[in-house]
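Bumping with the actual sequence this time:
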Amino acid sequence: MMSESGIKLEIIDSIGVITLASQPQNQIHSPDFIDLPTFKSWIEDSPIKGLVICGEGRHFSGGADLDELKRLSGDYVSLRSKMQQGNLVLNYLQNLPIPTVAALSGACFGAGLEIALACHI
């Protein structure tokens, strides 16, 4: 299992599982919620036949970490870069050639909803 800031990556029976694990609301701490090269490497170097994204605990995601966005808003160039990277991550997720499923439960707002909408199901 690999782990990034509030994100767990694991493979269970040839199914990739991404868990949003930033309790209690699984907030997304950065617009580029997962490092794209790491994500690509994990997908492409594994015999994954499908991908499930879920939230740890009661909620899928309460959305973006507003405190972190406020902090980033002081540096427009950095914020814009992070937003563009986030868009690339979502586009990559949306265009994966394997089935992708957002396993929703509880709250699903803002950035969490964008992640869910990028999935096929």
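The tokens above came from a reply further down the thread. The mean pLDDT is 92.
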